[in-house]
Design goal:
Shape of chain B: elongated
Order of helices and strands of chain B: EEEHEEHEHHHEHEHEEHEHEEHEH
Number of strands of chain B: 14
Largest sheet of chain B: 6 strands, mixed
Helix content of chain B: 25-40%
Radius of gyration of chain A: 29 Å
Structural class of chain A: mainly alpha
Helix content of chain A: 55-70%
Strand order of the largest sheet of chain A: 2-1-3-4
Structural class of chain B: alpha/beta
Number of helices of chain A: 17
Radius of gyration of chain B: 24 Å
Oligomer: heterodimer
Largest interface: A-B, 20 and 26 residues
Chain lengths: 403, 322
């Protein structure tokens, strides 16, 4: 009962504390909106933002080079722009307005025409072993995008092969029949496949199903700074002494001080998921009901860690330095900033030593899979509760010793 | 069959009985064998220089600090800082402000009232009553962080009264307030004492203590040096002699070790001869001899009026502590 009085008072103080409201509610929404805009999924609905920008300098000006450009343009991941000169392409690439620059040399059509179908299928040992250069094609990648450059080269080369293969196939009676039949089937089947894929996996969902949980987990743990500040204010105002003088237990004081931040954290997480859904069209997974335990357990772990930090720091400066470092360190090592799928196995395993890792794993199980992995969700929630209990126990012990 | 009722016991125990409290921090003995008693309606002044052990003693009495030895009895029952019933009997006004600056006076009072179990109309009525008593009714809904120093002090005091404690522990409640707020606070303290509340009043302001306390305990180096009714303490106070001498000669150098020298209001030196130590007549003769030898004229000789400050300084010494 007394704990509830402290909770009520702290909720009132939280509502009056504009800095805390901004940090806990406005900032996360603003952050996700900005990330949304930068990925082209919010306000602008700019699909181009998620596509690789490819520049093409067509020196061949042939029917085959036009086919190649058209084939590249059909790739949804590419935004192809034909430029007049190598200089223009170079400048655009240097400005960072494109990821890659493809030069189709003057001899492209002639070299493609010289190839036999067998040489295309044996590209490792024939003339094509030399790579795109063998066809008078040159690829330049922006330095910052070198990592994905190899991947793009592979995709582009596949398109090149698809364009030149029919030319070589036309020279052989057997392959001619086969390739024409395949072309007809592909043109009939593709429109349906594309529309089906687009309908089932909205682009926004793909991005937001890791952005929203990632930032939700990160911002859920921002509560630790606000909590620690609240404890410091209680000490500096001298009111902690009054609380300890009142006829209530120390555990009630701690519970009363923790509950408001737990409530705030749950509201914060729910709000982020709601905004993710309403503003960015993110998917809540096949069974959204499972989001509830994950959010509740994540907030519980976050507020308990906040309690632990609150009993370990003594000044506002310590909160700023230790709190912020802790938040960023734990968030970055758990996969709040990048999809966990991109993490090496070692990091994935290391992330499970902290609550963030389990929270993100649980969100993955609810949002990403076609059916919710209930066992994984239950395991993750249990681990989050275990973290919460451990943090709360150590925090309580430290608080009792300090007071 | 009717159960026979236990006979009513009339308790003769003191409201607060502090017995042989001691506390050590590392190698520093902060409190040594402190014993005090407080009766209902009594105001006990607690005097001591900075670092004398007053705050440590009050923290132990209020239950915030556990003593190394000794015991505290509230209404005859041992108190270890956990007993909720005993906690309800204690009202503490800490030396540093202890209010929520973002909450207004009503919110502050009601919050602490609720912690002590007040609710509904009783809570509201009590908060209104306190607001009126501490003179904050007109500012009741302003954030207390925007109050003047005196208003904050009054609120700090009012919070401790919310649950109607029977023992009030006041640690320098008037520090940094204007004379009006001080007078108001002292009136409140007197009112509380009149209504039967036992009060421990720690302060550096001797005139305040002399004005409101019947009994005083002087503490230094963690020990109670004297504890009695003020008239009794002053009774035993030795009279000091003040020798006013002319000129700015080397009085200090000549009388070093024999007497304390102060600067008088008229620019002359005042030689203070403490009546507490040694043979006053013999020392007076010796000093006059020195003065004559140095051709320093004596303007007049007075006896010093006895007061609490003199008693305090005699017991705790004149040397600086900080």
């Amino acid at each position: 009962m007394s704990a509830w009085q402290i909770t009520r008072k702290d909720l009132l103080l939280l509502l009056k504390d504009k800095r805390a409201v901004v940090l806990l509610l406005v900032l996360p929404l603003l952050f996700i909106s900005i990330v949304g805009m930068s990925t082209g999924q919010f306000l602008t609905k700019d699909d181009d933002a998620q596509r690789f920008r490819i520049l093409v300098v067509d020196r061949s000006q042939s029917e085959l080079s036009e086919k190649l450009v058209a084939a590249l343009r059909r790739q949804k991941e590419f935004l192809v722009r034909v430029v007049e000169s190598a200089q223009e392409a170079d400048e655009t690439l240097s400005r960072g307005d494109a990821s890659m620059w493809l030069t189709i040399g003057a001899e492209f059509e002639q070299r493609a025409d010289e190839l036999r179908i067998s040489e295309i299928f044996n590209s490792d040992s024939g003339p094509l072993a030399g790579g795109p250069e063998a066809l008078d094609l040159r690829l330049e990648t922006r330095p910052a995008a070198i990592g994905i450059g190899r991947l793009l080269e592979g995709v582009i080369f596949t398109q090149v092969i698809k364009v030149i293969a029919p030319v070589a196939a036309e020279k052989n009676a057997v392959t001619r029949t086969w390739i024409r039949k395949a072309e007809n089937e592909e043109s009939e089947a593709n429109p349906q496949m594309v529309s089906s894929v687009e309908k089932n996996i909205p682009k926004a969902a793909a991005v937001y199903s890791w952005i929203v949980p990632g930032f939700t987990v990160m911002f859920a743990f921002f509560v630790i700074s606000v909590m620690a500040r609240s404890f410091i204010a209680e000490r500096e105002n001298g009111t902690l002494r009054r609380l300890l003088l009142a006829p209530i237990s120390r555990t009630s004081v701690l519970a009363g001080k923790t509950i408001p931040f737990y409530v705030t954290s749950v509201i914060q997480c729910s709000l982020l998921f709601l905004c993710g859904r309403l503003l960015f069209g993110m998917s809540w997974g096949p069974e959204p009901i499972y989001l509830i335990p994950v959010i509740l357990c994540t907030s519980l772990a976050a507020t308990s860690l906040g309690l632990l930090l609150a009993t370990a720091v003594h000044t506002d400066q310590q909160v700023s330095s230790y709190g912020t470092t802790l938040i960023l360190l734990l968030s970055s090592m758990s996969g709040c900033f990048f999809p966990r799928d991109m993490f090496p196995q070692t990091m994935k395993r290391a992330s499970l030593f902290i609550p963030h890792g389990w929270a993100l794993k649980a969100f993955d199980a609810v949002l990403i899979q076609s059916t919710v992995d209930v066992l994984t969700v239950a395991t993750c929630c249990t681990m989050l509760i275990a973290f919460a209990v451990a943090f709360f126990a150590v925090g309580t012990w430290r608080f009792r010793n300090a007071t | 069959m009717e159960t026979p009722r236990a006979p009513t016991v009339v308790s003769c125990a003191a409201l607060l009985d502090v017995r042989h409290l001691s506390k050590k921090f590392g190698n520093h003995q902060a409190v040594v064998d402190v014993s005090l008693q407080l009766q209902p309606g009594e105001v006990l002044g607690l005097l001591g220089p900075n670092g004398a052990g007053k705050s440590t003693s009050m923290m132990m009495i209020s239950g915030l600090l556990r003593p190394d030895s000794g015991e505290i009895l509230i209404d005859g029952r041992p108190y270890d800082g956990r007993d909720s019933e005993a906690k309800r009997k204690l009202g503490v006004v800490p030396q540093d402000l202890a209010i929520y600056p973002d909450l207004n006076a009503v919110e502050n009072l009601q919050f602490f009232g609720r912690l002590y179990g007040l609710k509904g109309p009783e809570l509201k009525h009590r908060a209104d009553e306190i607001l009126e008593r501490i003179g904050l009714t007109d500012s009741a809904f302003r954030a207390s962080g925007n109050y003047s120093g005196g208003m904050k002090r009054r609120l700090n005091f009012g919070i401790a009264l919310m649950h109607e404690p029977s023992i009030l522990i006041l640690d320098e409640p008037t520090v940094g307030v204007d004379p009006q707020s001080r007078s108001h606070l002292l009136d409140c303290v007197r009112d509380q004492a009149r209504s039967g509340v036992g009060i421990i009043y720690a302060s550096h302001y001797m005139e305040e203590v002399q004005a409101i306390c019947e009994k005083v305990a002087i503490v230094d180096h963690g020990k109670v040096l004297a504890c009695d009714a003020i008239p009794k303490l002053l009774e035993g106070l030795a009279t000091d002699l003040l020798i006013y001498v002319e000129g700015e000669g080397d009085v200090r150098g000549r009388l070093a070790g024999l007497a304390r020298i102060e600067m008088g209001g008229d620019g002359n030196n005042v030689i203070v001869l403490s009546g507490a130590c040694g043979d006053l007549g013999e020392r007076l003769r010796s000093i006059l001899h020195h003065l004559m030898a140095a051709r320093i004229n004596v303007v007049r000789i007075e006896t010093q009026q006895t007061n609490l400050e003199r008693l305090f300084l005699q017991l705790t010494g004149y040397g600086l502590r900080d």
